[in-house]
Amino acid sequence: MVTSGIHPQGKARSDRAFVTLATNPDYATGAAALFRSLRRTGTTADLVLLYTELPDQTVSDLSTLGIRAVHVDLLPTSHEFNNLHARARLHGVAPFTKGEKPPFHTPLDNFAKLRLWQLDYARVVFIDADAIVLQNIDRLFDYPEFSAAPNVYESLADFHRLNSGVFTARPSQATYDAMLARLDQPGQFWKRTDQTFLEAYFPNWHGLPVFDNMLQYVWLNLPDLWRWQDIRVLHYQYEKPWENHAKADSLRVLIDLWKAHAGDGPVPDPRDLPLPPGAA
Ligand code: UDP
Ligand code: MN
């Protein structure tokens, strides 16, 4: 690959890939659980990790899962852009009122997801490193660019917005170049980083079923929507299942499921798990 800012190891084995991103060891912990869960679905697509800075040992541990590690640089955005999207500044002007972002979350790093448009695959499904896959989702490769599920975790109003934790894409250097030109304009502030940007860049985004990106707060806020047999991707937005956090007790069933997927042992059949309190 001759394009700049991206350094893949090895060759693609398939023309399709599930891709995630980890810019620090915490998200590498998440990525390992995600990859293990994807393997359990029997997919034949490549599993790709985009990473910026990780210890060599972390990368080689992840490589034992048979994944393809692709070193990428953060995007070549301007100083002004970087300052506008710095964690302290973003949290100050656009506070998160619904949940807590972990201390290891750096908003600017989110934009590195866009590097996947530089990959040598025909079709890609991106999944956040804080998600696990509970059933085969290879059918998502047949969905058009750009498909994503709604950002549902509180109310009907959520259906207006997409969640960028799961989406479909067709890599293309031309698309990547056009995205970067649009992304970094003088004074441009993307309040929810890549998510706000992708929504603006693909205003006619295609909707995926909510079950392809079930957000953990649905367990707390919309229990009637919870159907274990339908959930294909479970996404731990806000607080992460590998940290100690204030909502851990009320999300215990989901956290235990994540831990099972992160380990080597058997994983439970989700249909045997309890429903959230208050579910019909
Ligand atoms: N990410 C990362 N480093 C960061 C922030 C984010 O690698 O400092 C990646 C990681 O794949 C993560 C995704 O970007 O899952 C989006 O961030 P996060 O999942 O924490 O956001 P949320 O789903 O809580 O909105
Ligand atoms: Mn996430």
Explain what you see:
28% of the residues lie in helices and 17% in strands. It is of the alpha/beta class and 280 residues long. The protein has one domain (16-212): Spore Coat Polysaccharide Biosynthesis Protein SpsA, Chain A (Alpha-Beta Complex), CATH 3.90.550.10. Helix 1 crosses helix 9 (252-262). It is globular and about 50 Å long. The N and C termini lie far apart (52 Å). The structure holds uridine-5'-diphosphate (UDP) and manganese (II) ion. Residues 20-24, 27, 105-106, 109-110, 128-130, 165, 237-238 line the site of uridine-5'-diphosphate (UDP).
CA gyration radius, whole angstroms: 18 Å
The number of E-state strands comes to: 11
Q: Give the CATH H-level superfamily.
A: Spore Coat Polysaccharide Biosynthesis Protein SpsA, Chain A
User: What small ligands are held by the chains?
Assistant: uridine-5'-diphosphate, manganese (II) ion
Mean pLDDT across residues: 96
Which structural class matches the secondary elements? alpha/beta
* Overall tally of domains: 1
Report the span from N to C terminus. Answer: 52 Å
* CATH C-level label: Alpha Beta
Provide the β-strand percentage band.
15-25%
| Main sheet attributes: strand count, strand direction, barrel closure | 8 strands, mixed
Given the C-alpha coordinates, what overall shape results?
globular
Strand order of the largest sheet: 1-4-3-2-5-8-7-9
* CATH domain topology: Spore Coat Polysaccharide Biosynthesis Protein SpsA, Chain A
Q: What is the count of helical runs?
A: 9
The SSE string, one letter per element, is EEHEHEHHHEEEEHHEEHEH
Helix content: 25-40%
Parts with pLDDT < 50 across at least 5 consecutive residues: none
